[in-house]
Amino acid sequence: MRFAVVAHPVLGLGSALVVVAMVQAGSPTLAVVIVVLAAVMLHLALHIAGGRAIRAFAIASAAMIALAMVPMPGWSTGVVLPSAGCFLLVLWRVTSRGDPPWPRVALVGGVVGVVFAEGLAVARLVETGVDGVQFLEAGTLIAVVIGTWAGARCTRAGRERKQADERDRIAAARLAERANIRRDLHDVIGHSLALMIAQAEAARVGVTDEATHEAIGQVAETGREAMGSLRAMLRVLDSTPSGTGTVPTLSALPSLVDAASTPLHAVTLVETGPRGVLTSDAELALVRVAQEGITNALRHLKPPVVVAVRLTWSTTAATLEVRDDGGAGGRPGADAGSGLIALTERVTAAGGTFDVERNPGGWSLSATVPARISPTVEAAQ
After folding, report:
1. Mean pLDDT of the residues in the chain
2. Is the alpha carbon torsion for 313, 318, 319, 322 positive or negative?
3. Is 60 in contact with 51 (CB distance < 8 Å)?
4. Nearest by Cα to 37 from 81, 3, 77, 90
5. How many distinct structural domains can be found in the chain?
6. Across-strand partners of 104?
7. In whole angstroms, how far apart are CA 117 and each of 68, 80, 108, 120, 139?
8. Rounded to an integer, what is the distance from CA 296 to the centroid of its chain?
9. Whole-angstrom Cα distance, residue 149 to residue 161?
10. What range defines the domain where residue 86 resides?
């Protein structure tokens, strides 16, 4: 304890002066010895309170009982010995660090100890007369004990709040990392699997050999099973996303569209308006919307499928829309999964809006994020 460094010499010196005064006042030798031993026990208790607070409290309590039973010249009770301050520090340690129910036990022990000490003092003063000083002294000592206990409780509560905040911060960081892993798995691996399935189905069209046709069909079916397993794993990892991870740029859109295009999957990209400047999280959101829209069309719709990706720029915003024609119908059991939820969170975090619409011919995903005019456009103007 930090206070022990100062408490030992200061309180010890004060108690030594009291013992000298007792000797000079002619106090019985037994009383002097008890006071000295009690003071030593109190300082010992304070010394071990850092690692063995409960044992220290027991030792300090025994020492205080001994002081309460010793009549001291000029004082109504011996518990006001300077070294008795060690008891308060031990009480603080037990309350601020001890496990329940020890903090309450310490409070009750301190209050009961004051009542016991003052009761003995009143009993010794019955013959000479008891006035209000004893009751004032008792009230003051009880207030000191309760104040020390309350201060320790406040300190403990503040420390526990900090620890809880730290635990919450660590938990949030873990959830964010899990969310980033989930989103990367969904965006990257899920998209790659969807492309693989689409390419395999397209390859089956031109194959005449029955064995090869079946083998390629098995590849596509295996890919769909892998997609289902991936989505099940993503539900385990699902959490509140935070952070953006590695940020792709809009320059990846053409290659994204080319990779998804097959004879049975017509994927096109149209960009209109002078390109503006986006924040990194807004640019990431648009790329992920394009990726998710293409992946959902290839994964959930039977070919042939037509998917149109359109990026429209204005002076204040950029809008990316992915629209499919519904293909030859939906696959049995297909659903949107967790990707659209993640997209909504991404776009919202980037300050934009995200909409999903079911049209007569298919689905439409649309995201609008804030943009500003690029320096080259401003110079041209």
Report:
1. 81
2. positive
3. no
4. 81
5. 2
6. none
7. 5, 10, 14, 5, 12
8. 34
9. 18
10. 2-130
Q: How many CA atoms lie within 13 A of 327 on its CB side?
A: 21
To the question of pTM greater than 0.85 for the whole model, the response is no
- Is residue 153 in some structural domain? no
- φ, ψ of residue 231 in degrees (nearest 5): -65, -35
CA proximity to 44, closest of 33, 29, 55: 55
Q: Do 16 and 99 share a domain, yes or no?
A: yes
Question: Is residue 101 reached through a cis peptide bond, with omega within 30 degrees of 0 on the bond before it?
Answer: yes
Does residue 136 belong to any structural domain of this protein? Answer: no
Span 202-252, pLDDT tens digits? 777 767 777 777 777 777 777 766 665 566 456 545 544 444 444 578 988
145 in any annotated domain: no
Handedness of CA 292, 295, 300, 302 (dihedral sign): positive
Residue type, 99: D
Residue 76 main-chain phi, psi, to 5 deg: -80, -25
Chain segment 250-259, per-residue pLDDT in tens: 988 998 888 8
Give yes or no: residues 177 and 101 share one domain.
no
Whether residue 68 is found in the same domain as residue 118: yes
Q: Are residues 365 and 254 in the same domain?
A: yes
Which residue do the tokens 């008890």 mark? 34
Handedness of CA 77, 80, 83, 84 (dihedral sign): positive
**Residue 355 bridge partners (DSSP):** 366
Measured distance CA(110)–CA(145) in Å, rounded: 6
Q: What's the CATH code of the domain at 352? A: 3.30.565.10
